[in-house]
């Protein structure tokens, strides 16, 4: 019986071993169970047996499942805390290293207190003080290393002997909280390079020491931005005439004192602030700012080029908190007469509290090269030094956000064209008001893109919401293409054809091989003019299909009819239209047009599109490969100091005598700056050469268009 019993026990054990893998099952908790467990964990991370039993009954789980879940959750929480502590320790470790290096570099330039000359040999007291400081730093480093080793589970590699090295090429003088460079600044290295050349030189070139200094620069810049956004008078002064806030440089200098530095020639300050509601939540807006492609598309009328050179920190998992990027960008006004601005900057994002974000930009380059390399730079490219600028984002109810935007720069504005001088020097051309107005309009457009419940009256011939979204994407690509080919960006080489060297028609050519554009040689022609007519009257004139024959030379006097209409903003002028010419000779072509307006200016852009291509887009298919060659008009206020009076007069009753039927101001107190631009395919062969006939044709086209605009608006003598 004993042998039989022993044998039976072994058989039973063997059977349990064979069955063991089949008993191992994974149980996936439901969303409700996880929610209840998380809520209990916040109140009591270590529940007793009675609490676990009650919780298992409520959730339909086994008590051991509840026990194991809490054990795993505590382990996960501990790991998160350890990772955060490790990050802090590494930062302190690097900071101590930087301080030691800075001390050694400072000792190279020790001045003798007796003669004022360089000290060839350090005194005994100085050497003793240095030894004591090094001993203190070494003890601090050992202490931090031992603490970090406990979390990591292995010893931390100690720093070797520090050798004298030149200081990094990052200028931290911006904001007055950096150190002076012993070596050349990043701008001195990049002097004379274009934006694309600078990007290729800088990508991947940031050392660990430079990175730590950039982190310190970004953190201090964030602090300054928040104070600028939250402080009112006397730091910010309200300009009643121009209806904007400007920075008091005297109050700013007291609040943020900076080390004395020589002021470069042709350099002045622009500092503006504005705030308003935006129809987007904070998380989505921060994601746009930290994605360079989304950011450039959102602000396509301002940003002609943008690139992320290096991601220094990707931020916390799941959000953009503490994300830090090194970027470069080229900013524009939509006219070939206004030089673009090149900036080379850090972008840093912080999540300050629940629903409160801030994104700051700050330059890392210097303007020292302006005095020595001014002749080496392109006449169409201006360096721009950006002090802490950006926006503070506060979540509001119903999916809105309150955005406070601060723009503080030192631009180099040599040879600003007389027509745009007031607009640029007043800070309107690149100021906070323009950035915020553009953001508000584009967020309305984005919200309209996501709407599904569209009335049949608005859709017109567009059969479905999918077709509507496809048409909006096609129109957005058309707008971006127009904006990318109108300004004085370094991508273009404009040549003046007629008139004076300042005001004539300018042309540029490019070889087009990209998808979404016709293959061949494209000729771009543009000119800018001033008219004594309010901007909103000019905008209404261009977008009115009944008035199109007054300025469209190619329409041959024929009327056009709107066959589809898509509203993409609260203003009735923010819309996309599909137009059809009322003559039988052009039945195979339609005109895609988008008009948009905000406080900073207006655009009316259009492009002829084949009917079959439009049908494909309206059916909801991808419109990325539909060829577009847009032309159109960019309209901005002339920057006159009395433009507030002009706007007030323009909204009054016409019978008061302020304006005649054309909208022209009888008092000539202000007006509009208009850029007229055309793009024409002159050859289907990318290798073809431009001929004189094509240049003459486009010159006559743009000159005749300008003359017809002046005649229609009763400004023939302007």
UniProtKB/TrEMBL annotation:
Keywords: Coiled coil, DNA-binding, Homeobox, Nucleus, Transcription, Transcription regulation. It is found in: Nucleus. Gene3D superfamilies: 3.30.530.20, Homeodomain-like. It holds the Pfam family Homeodomain. GO terms for molecular function: DNA binding; DNA-binding transcription factor activity, RNA polymerase II-specific; lipid binding. The lineage of its organism: Eukaryota, Viridiplantae, Streptophyta, Embryophyta, Tracheophyta. InterPro entries: HD (IPR001356), HD-Zip_IV (IPR042160), HD-Zip_IV_C (IPR057993), Homeobox_CS (IPR017970), Homeodomain-like_sf (IPR009057), START-like_dom_sf (IPR023393), START_lipid-bd_dom (IPR002913). Residues 20-80 form the Homeobox domain. This is Homeobox domain-containing protein. One of its GO terms (biological process) is cell differentiation. GO terms for cellular component: nucleus. Residues 207-448 form the START domain.
């Amino acid at each position: 019986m004993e042998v039989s019993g022993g044998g039976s026990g072994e058989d039973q054990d063997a059977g349990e071993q064979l069955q063991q893998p089949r008993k191992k099952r994974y149980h996936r908790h439901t969303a409700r169970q996880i929610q209840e467990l998380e809520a209990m964990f916040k109140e009591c991370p270590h529940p007793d047996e009675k609490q676990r039993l009650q919780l298992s009954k409520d959730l339909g789980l086994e008590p051991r499942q509840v026990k194991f879940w809490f054990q795993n959750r505590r382990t996960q929480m501990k790991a998160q805390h350890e990772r955060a502590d490790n990050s802090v320790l590494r930062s302190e470790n690097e900071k101590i290293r930087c301080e030691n290096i800075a001390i050694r570099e400072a000792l190279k330039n020790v001045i003798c207190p007796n003669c004022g000359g360089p000290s060839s040999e350090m005194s005994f007291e100085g050497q003793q003080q240095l030894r004591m400081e090094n001993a203190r730093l070494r003890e601090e480093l050992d202490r931090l290393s031992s603490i970090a080793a406990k979390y990591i589970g292995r010893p931390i590699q100690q720093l070797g002997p520090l050798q004298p090295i030149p200081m990094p090429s990052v200028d931290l003088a911006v904001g007055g909280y950096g150190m002076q460079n012993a070596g050349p600044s990043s701008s001195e290295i990049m002097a004379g390079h274009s934006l694309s050349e600078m990007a290729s030189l800088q990508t991947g070139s940031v050392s660990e020491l430079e990175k730590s200094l950039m982190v310190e620069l970004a953190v201090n810049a964030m602090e300054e931005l928040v104070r600028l956004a939250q402080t009112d008078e006397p730091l910010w002064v309200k300009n009643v005439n121009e209806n904007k806030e400007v920075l008091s440089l005297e109050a700013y200098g007291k609040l943020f004192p900076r080390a004395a530095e020589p002021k470069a020639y042709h350099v002045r300050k622009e500092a503006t602030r504005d705030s308003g509601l935006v129809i987007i939540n904070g998380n989505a807006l921060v994601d746009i700012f930290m994605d360079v492609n989304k950011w450039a598309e959102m602000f396509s009328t301002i940003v002609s080029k943008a690139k992320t050179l290096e991601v220094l920190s990707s931020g916390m998992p799941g959000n953009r908190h503490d994300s830090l990027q090194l970027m470069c960008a080229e900013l524009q006004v939509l006219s070939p007469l206004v030089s673009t601005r090149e900036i080379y900057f850090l972008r840093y994002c912080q999540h300050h509290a629940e629903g409160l974000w801030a994104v700051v930009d700050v330059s890392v380059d210097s303007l020292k090269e302006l005095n020595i390399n001014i002749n080496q730079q392109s006449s169409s490219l201006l360096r721009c030094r950006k002090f802490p600028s950006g926006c503070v984002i506060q979540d509001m109810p119903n999916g809105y956000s309150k955005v406070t935007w601060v723009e503080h720069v030192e631009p180099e504005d040599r040879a600003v064209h007389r027509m745009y001088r007031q607009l640029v020097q007043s800070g309107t051309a690149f100021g906070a008001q323009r950035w915020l107005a553009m953001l508000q309009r584009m967020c309305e457009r984005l919200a309209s893109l996501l709407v599904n419940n569209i009335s049949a009256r608005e859709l017109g011939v567009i059969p479905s919401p999918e077709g509507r979204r496809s048409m909006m994407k096609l129109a957005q690509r058309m707008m971006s293409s127009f904006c990318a080919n109108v300004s004085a960006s370094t991508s273009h080489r404009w040549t003046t054809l007629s008139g004076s060297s300042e005001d004539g028609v300018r042309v540029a050519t490019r070889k087009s091989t990209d998808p979404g554009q016709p293959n061949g040689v494209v000729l771009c022609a543009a000119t800018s003019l001033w008219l004594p007519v309010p901007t909103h009257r000019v905008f209404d004139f261009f977008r009115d299909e009944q008035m199109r024959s007054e300025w469209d030379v190619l329409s041959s006097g024929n009327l056009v009819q709107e066959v589809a209409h898509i509203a993409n903003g609260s203003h009735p002028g923010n819309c996309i239209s599909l137009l059809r010419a009322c003559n039988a000779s052009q039945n195979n072509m339609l005109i895609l047009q988008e008009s948009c307006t905000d406080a900073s200016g207006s655009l009316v852009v259009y492009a002829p599109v084949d009917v079959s291509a439009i049908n494909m887009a309206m059916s909801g298919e991808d419109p990325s490969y539909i060829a577009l060659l847009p032309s159109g008009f960019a309209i901005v206020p002339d920057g006159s100091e009395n433009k507030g009076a002009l706007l007030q007069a323009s909204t009054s009753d016409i019978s008061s005598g302020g304006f005649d039927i054309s909208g022209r101001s009888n008092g000539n107190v202000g007006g509009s700056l208009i850029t007229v631009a055309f793009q024409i395919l002159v050859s289907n062969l990318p290798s073809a050469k431009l001929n004189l006939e094509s240049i003459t044709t486009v010159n006559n086209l743009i000159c005749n268009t300008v003359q017809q605009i002046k005649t229609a608006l009763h400004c023939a003598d302007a």
